[in-house]
Design brief:
single chain; 200 residues; alpha+beta; two-stranded antiparallel sheet; 6 helices; elongated
Length: 200
């Protein structure tokens, strides 16, 4: 029962200290509200001021000035505030939709009209970057275990690649694909590849 008494004592102290009329400055008086207890003994708060949100902001700013002057200067810098928006250069661009294609298809940021082969692919299943091989296609003997053991070593992967003019082979650690024409990855549900960001 000592804990309950201590808690009640602490709540009474909070009520006395914070739940009363507060003077913000000599020229203005702010009424923050009335505090009390309901029939069950829980603290209740009744707002009596229509501009309570603005009043709370003023009170918080005043508390910051008094108790944490260094924090206030950092959190609320003086002078006009300018909203900064990320530039295309800092964030990069992504392909939408994502295409893969043969070596004759240009690489870069792909769109529905440009249909460029994305060169920033990343697999969401194995979290590896997708490797590309121009003028190559995967041999039918290529399998998951081969990729799992050899990606990202391009030299070892060459053992299962065959020459194929105009094709481009793609592989991560869990999937592989060969393309001749632009192919929308939405049409290849087994490939869990997404576009990473292209640098502007």
């Amino acid at each position: 029962m000592d804990e309950d008494a201590d808690l009640d004592e602490l709540l009474d102290e909070v009520e006395q200290k914070f739940c009363r009329n507060v003077s913000v400055s000599s020229s203005a008086r702010v009424t923050a509200g009335e505090c009390g207890r309901d029939n069950a003994g829980r603290i209740k708060h009744k707002t009596t001021s229509p501009g309570l949100a603005a009043d709370i902001d003023v009170l918080l700013e005043e508390l910051l000035e008094e108790d944490f002057p260094q924090l206030k200067r950092e959190a609320f810098p003086e002078g006009p505030q300018v909203e900064t928006k990320p530039s295309a250069q800092s964030g990069g661009r992504k392909c939408c939709p994502v295409f893969v294609g043969g070596s004759a298809v240009a690489s870069g940021v792909g769109t529905a009209t440009s249909k460029r082969s994305c060169d920033q692919l990343r697999c969401t299943s194995c979290d590896f970057r997708v490797l590309t091989f121009d003028d190559r296609a995967w041999d039918p003997s290529c399998d998951y275990l081969f990729l799992r053991n050899n990606v990202p070593d391009r030299e070892k992967l060459g053992a299962r690649l065959r020459r194929s003019g105009g094709s481009r082979a793609f592989a991560c650690q869990c999937s592989w694909f060969s393309a001749d024409e632009p192919t929308d990855l939405r049409e290849q549900p087994r490939l869990r590849w997404v576009c990473g960001k292209h640098q502007a």
